[in-house]
Amino acid sequence: MISALLLSSLAVLLTCSAAVGLVRVVPKSTDAITGYAFDGSGDLYVLYLNGSIYRYSNGAATLFTQFSSSLRMRSLAFDHLGNAYTGDYYGHLYRVRPDGTYSVLAYGLWSIQGITVDSGGNVYVVAAYNRWIYKVQPDGSIAPWATVGSGSDFLTSIALDGDAGYMYLVVTSSTNPPLYTYIVRIPLSDPSLHETVAYISGLRCYSSYSLHVRPDGKLLLAGVYNHYTDSEAGVYLVDPATGAYEYFIEPQPGLYLLGVTADPSGELYLVGRWYEDSTLYYSIFRVSVAVDETPPVTSVQLEGAQGLSGWYVSDVVVTLTASDEESGVDHTEYSFDGSTWMLYTAPFTLGEGIHTVYYRSVDKAGNVEEPGSAVVKVDYTPPTTSSLLSGDWGEDGWSRADVTWTLTAFDGLSGVHATYYRVNGGAWIEYTGALTFTEEGFYTLEYYSVDEAGNVEQVRSTSFALDKTPPELALSFDAASMSPVVWGVDDMDSDVEVQMYVEDSVRSYLLSDSAGNTLEVVLEVHGREGRVLHVRFINATYSSGSGVEEYTFPDNAFNAVRVVNKHTGGLKALIQHFGVDDLFTVNARYSEKSGATRILVAVEGEEPSRHMATGLWLITAVTDGGTLSFAPPE
Predict the structure, then answer these.
(1) Which of 81, 278, 340, 341 has its CA 20 to 30 A from that of 214?
(2) Three-class DSSP category at 475
(3) Cα–Cα distance, 98 to 76 (Å, whole number)
(4) 289 domain residue, yes or no
(5) Least confident among 226-230, 365-369, 519-523
(6) Strands 311-312 and 372-378
(7) Same domain for 92 and 215?
(8) Which of 14-18, 25-29, 165-169, 382-386 bottoms out in mean pLDDT, i.e. has the lowest?
(9) Cα–Cα distance between 183 and 114 in angstroms, integer?
């Protein structure tokens, strides 16, 4: 029995006259500890009421995983694969993988209390709501395994003695008197043959982690006390063979020892609860000989949004936590250059930049820790990407020659990781070098960059139109004035500008599209206003980004004769002809009497075709890459 335990600076160390003490191994916390366990490598995991599970390894604390505080998590156990198991008040059993991710393994186990795992990975769960112990297999299948108790009985902690083939269960009373606690031994081979092996009257044990089986088969039971009169709780040693029990650690004023377990080496760890200035604290203590020749250990915890490659993408809160298993921590200090030290009193925040934080602690025995350090890289500013389009530009983003697109990204801290782009809403592609666009069309280019920290730039965009083809000229005439009418035809641009220059009977038409491509067509025009029109195409000059091309048209004629109705002054007949030597002729004759236009088309090498168009149909002549064609009748 460990006795005569004296409370001395509870926040750090409890010592006894025999130099046996309780050494606090985790920081004191106002959040209740609702579960704790060791994994196979000896790391301690602590579950808090706020839903967090912390891993304590070699004095360093890291957040293992986080559940919602509203779940009221309790109990913790590990299997041989390193998976942790914990439950919530609402009956969900969770499997937490070694990387901290978790999923629901089983549900419907209301008011989960104790949890333990056998060598085969089967999880045994105490559901206090209906006084059942459930066996959950690794695949999540659930089977009722044993039911114990009745009336005001409340099932709490369980512990497995696999070598002996038994499960032990703690059953206690409700909060109303009479108070009692008893331990039930359940054979693994036949759970129905369970029996009570110890009974403690007048005391209650409500903790879900209060029971531990020692290697010699005896039981340690913590957290047994009178809830109405006692201000402390010790640890009992129970012999299941005889039912006898006695204190293993006697109660000490102000200290409630609520839980007991052992690490893989057999050292005992206890959960303690106490008040300081009306504030309730929890921690875990290792039962140890209080000899201190070892410096304290300081761990650094960095809280911030983690990016890539070790960078943070938000301000980082630095928390230093020191522990000393024997005399206790006197103070902790930190530095940014390794020589000028500042007293650490509270977490501090680091902004953008690359920081080296040095830290060390001194214990109450005067042992000084060798400085540790942590490099903290913070970058939360996305990179910026500039776009450059090179082409032969006309108006409003139109180019008449191939366009080269170059992207340049900049990041002043972590550096550019990659730049991505896509064309006309297609798939995103990593940018590796300048792109050249040769196909005509309309282009919308989107792009962004990502820095080494993982900051993603907002998507930017630019657009242009690539039109390498000059427009073509279309010519018809006004049937009333018998004057030519000219307009531009462009597959991409509906806004072709037409300029006309007249010198005697020669007319020059200059057509310009938005990209700057041009077509100049020279015509010879004769006629009598309102009666006769004679047009001859002479030559064409095409200008584009690839150069200038000139063409002389073959013999051609575009003629029209208008016949007026002497009585009404309206159009009586309209005779049209458009022909290109040895290529085609188009003749059209409109009659007021029939109200239709008769059309004859003769193309070299083809049978002539006749058409009838309702109403007045006008011939339209069209240039076509240095030749002439016509708009066929519909």
Answers:
(1) 81
(2) strand
(3) 14
(4) no
(5) 226-230
(6) parallel
(7) yes
(8) 14-18
(9) 13
Per-residue pLDDT, averaged over 385-406, amounts to 96
103, β-bridge pairs: 95
Q: Is 548 part of any domain?
A: yes
Around 342, how many Cα atoms within 13 Å sit in the side-chain half-sphere?
12
- Rounded Cα gap, residues 146 and 193, in angstroms: 10
Task: Judge whether residue 368 has pLDDT over 50.
Answer: yes
Three-point CA angle 215, 217, 221, nearest 5°: 95
Q: Flag whether 7 is in a domain.
A: no
- What gap in Å lies between CA 532 and CA 194, rounded to an integer? 121
Q: Is residue 417 part of a domain?
A: yes
pTM: 0.52
CA distance 404 to 623: 31
Residues 6+ positions from 623 with CB-CB distance below 8 Å: 472, 473, 474, 519, 521, 537, 540, 629
Q: Does residue 49 contact residue 39 with C-beta atoms inside 8 Å? A: no
Q: Can you tell me the distance from the alpha carbon of 216 to that of 496, in angstroms, rounded to the nearest whole number?
A: 99
pLDDT tens track for 459-514: 999 999 999 999 999 999 999 899 999 999 999 999 999 999 999 999 999 999 99
Q: Which conformational region is residue 397 in: left (phi greater than 0), alpha (psi within -120 to 50 degrees), or beta? A: left
How many domains are contained in the chain?
Answer: 4
The token pair at 435 is 């792109």
User: How long a stretch of residues is the chain?
Assistant: 634
Q: Hey, is 67 helix, strand or coil?
A: coil
If pLDDT is split at 50, 70 and 90, which confidence band does 66 have? very high
Instruction: Return the C-alpha torsion angle 483, 489, 495, 496, nearest 10.
Output: -70
Q: If you average pLDDT over residues 8-14, what whole number do you get?
A: 32
Q: Is the pLDDT of residue 289 over 70?
A: no
Range of the domain at 480: 472-630
Find out whether 107 and 95 touch, Cβ atoms under 8 Å: no
Higher pLDDT, 516 or 224: 516
From CA 607, how far away is CA 593, in angstroms rounded? 29
Give the Cα separation of 198 and 186 in Å (integer): 13
| Domain stop point among 406, 441, 466 | 466
> pLDDT band for position 8 (50/70/90)?
very low
On average, the pLDDT of the chain sits at: 92
> Does 515 lie in the same domain as 405?
no
For CA atoms 520, 523, 528, 533, the dihedral sign is negative
